[in-house]
Amino acid sequence: MRKPVEIAPPSGKLGVLLPGMGAVATTFVAGVELIRRGLSKPVGSLTQLATIRLGKRTDGRSPKIADFVPLASLADIEFGGWDLFPDNAYEAASEAGVLSKEHLAEVRPFLEGIQPMPAVFDPGYVKRLMGPHVKKGASKMDLAEQLIEDIHRFKREKNVERCVAIWCGSTEVYREPTDTHASLASFEKGLRESSDDIAPSAIYAYACLKAGVPYANGAPNLSVDFPAIHELARERQLPIAGKDFKTGQTWMKTIIAPGLKARMLGLEGWYSTNILGNRDGEVLDDPESFKAKEVTKLGALEYILQPKLYPELYEGFHHVVRINYYPPRGDNKEGWDNLDIFGWLGYPMQIKVDFLCRDSILAAPIVLDLALFLDLAQRSGMHGIQEWLSFYFKSPMTAPGLYPEHDLFIQLIKLKNTLRWMRGEELITHLGIEYYD
Ligand SMILES: NC(=O)c1ccc[n+]([C@@H]2O[C@H](COP(=O)([O-])OP(=O)(O)OC[C@H]3O[C@@H](n4cnc5c(N)ncnc54)[C@H](O)[C@@H]3O)[C@@H](O)[C@H]2O)c1
249-356: what CATH class? Predict the structure, then answer.
């Protein structure tokens, strides 16, 4: 056996900080509380339900992930966060309309006790929102320092030993990284000068890392995906991950596309459209916010299908993604996919998918897993971009020059092999030849 990585025990309480306390965040918080009271099951969460095979298939060793690596226990989690609306988590969850009244009633006093801290917000970055619960500051650096103070106060008041942060805020408008994002020095100068290039999400990311808090980004914003923040994560030895939770349609894409490629079936076009009526849908109705989403949604197919390697199957396939804001649906999205594929001798076929999903129900267990795995990574001394968490993201972050791995099944092998590697277990190659010696 190889030497295991040294992992500090998950002693004390873990604070989970949520910039943005809307549908996803409150579904996550309410869900964890329902689960720890034994009133519900953590369906969709690998950290709570999945097992991991160790050694040979004949060894019969398949512990639960939770018994294999030292994860923080749900009982030890404290929640905090920020929002530009002052509603407590019960009010915000009721407004989001994801969980039933009956479910919310069971955890009402608990949720009422979670009050967001005032947000760092700029309406130029999220055009469809305007809220009263917002910090004022002399500069963006001043705002970052206020966030850092919030984190220290939260830790003191809740008697929390470690924290992780997961961005569950709205999707900001699309921005390319600029010179301001190029190095930590230029970014800090930008903060002091309140540069327009710096989005609120990046101020949170900076503040969290400065305060020693690992950070994952659930939206397509730059947040932790630019050189200055990578530098800070390296300097502070903190893990970061992103971006954009992989929940509904893109999750489906990263299941079906590897199957087409595995069978060497061609693709002429993939048309995806959604109707969605929650606040996220309203924000994404703004073309500039949608642009950010479109970029993370479009990438997966290109990387999975590798048109450069397989031009006769995938070169120039048409890929269209639409999101339509349609209030009657609330959080219960409907996503349609039409795939024009072709097979033997070029004969055309079609696949239609109509996924009636619940966005936040799919996202909540991802938030939980990311929180627990980021904390595990930190206690294991892993820092910088956590590629093994690609499984959870539409547009996985990678080291510069590396293309991201989008295939869900490769991502799962990567995740589980990383856990095996941490514990000094043999990596599973699926070679299988040893059974026939
Ligand atoms: N639900 C999913 O399946 C899914 C999948 C992938 C990504 N996402 C992303 O996750 C994020 C959250 O989704 P949601 O459905 O909970 O949206 P939501 O609109 O219900 O919640 C977002 C919350 O963030 C708050 N917010 C916006 N800017 C903020 C800021 N600067 N500081 C603090 N709070 C801020 C808003 O007031 C709102 O309460 C969105 O960016 C969404 O695109 C969701």
Answer: alpha beta
